[in-house]
Every structure is written in structure tokens, then in C-alpha cells.
Design goal:
- There is one protein chain.
- By secondary structure, the protein is α/β, with parallel strands linked by helices.
- The chain is 28% helix and 34% strand.
- It contains 4 helices and 5 strands; from the N terminus they run βββαβαβαα.
- A 5-stranded mixed beta sheet has the order 3-2-1-4-5.
- The chain is globular.
- Residues 116-120 have low confidence and may be disordered.
Length: 120
């Protein structure tokens, strides 16, 4: 019998998806490795107030302990509710991506996610 040798996977990036609402931020942290596998590491909810943004960074640092792995923060443009958080993250010199909701919807449809068709 031959044994398969598997090479250890290396993390490429951590991504923090943020669902922004007027009063709260719903967080989902995932990692992607060199094989292309995406693994959700955790989710949390914090208040959408400047005083709570530091706790968001503390939560992320607990889940992304390897400081050599880049972390990207991703959120939809939600009126004005995302602006304070985006500015805070930018001032911390962190990678922030803001996407338009209709772009996310069309992307999901393009990869065959049927649930995107009914999303608003």
C-alpha cells in the first residue's frame, strides 16, 4: 500500500465579514488556506458604536493569532451606518473593503447561488 503524503496547508488570509446595521455589527471570521479551503472560525456581534470597535479588534486577534497572515475587513455600503467603523479600521492601518450591495447580489447570482435572486 502506498501512503499519500499530504503537505501542510498554510493560511493565506483571514477575512472578517461585517453585516452592518444601525445598532449592531454582526461579525463572521473565516480563513482561506493554500488548498482554497475556506473555514469559518467564529461569529460574534458587537454594538455599532465607536466605543465597541476596540472589542471587535480584540475578538479578531483571538481568532487570527498568526500575525503574518493578512486580515481583511469586508462590509457592504449601508447608508451611513458603515462609515464610522470603516474610518476606524482605516485609521488603524487595516485593510478595509466596502462593496455595494447590488454588486454582492450579482456576484452571488453569477456563481449560481440561487438564494441571491430573492435577496433584496
Amino acid at each position: 500500500m502506498s501512503q499519500k503524503t499530504t503537505q501542510p496547508t498554510t493560511l493565506l488570509r483571514c477575512c472578517v465579514g461585517i453585516d452592518v446595521s444601525k445598532y449592531s455589527l454582526q461579525l463572521c471570521l473565516s480563513v482561506i488556506d493554500t488548498t482554497g479551503k475556506v473555514t469559518v472560525k467564529g461569529s460574534s456581534k458587537v454594538s455599532n458604536k465607536a466605543t465597541a470597535f476596540a472589542s471587535l479588534l480584540t475578538w479578531v486577534s483571538k481568532h487570527c493569532q498568526d500575525k503574518t497572515v493578512p486580515v481583511r475587513y469586508l462590509m457592504e455600503s449601508t447608508g451611513v451606518y458603515h462609515e464610522q467603523l470603516a474610518w476606524f479600521l482605516f485609521q488603524q492601518d487595516l485593510a478595509v473593503s466596502i462593496i455595494l450591495p447590488n454588486k454582492a447580489k450579482h456576484y452571488l447570482k453569477s456563481i449560481g447561488n440561487n438564494r441571491a435572486a430573492g435577496a433584496v
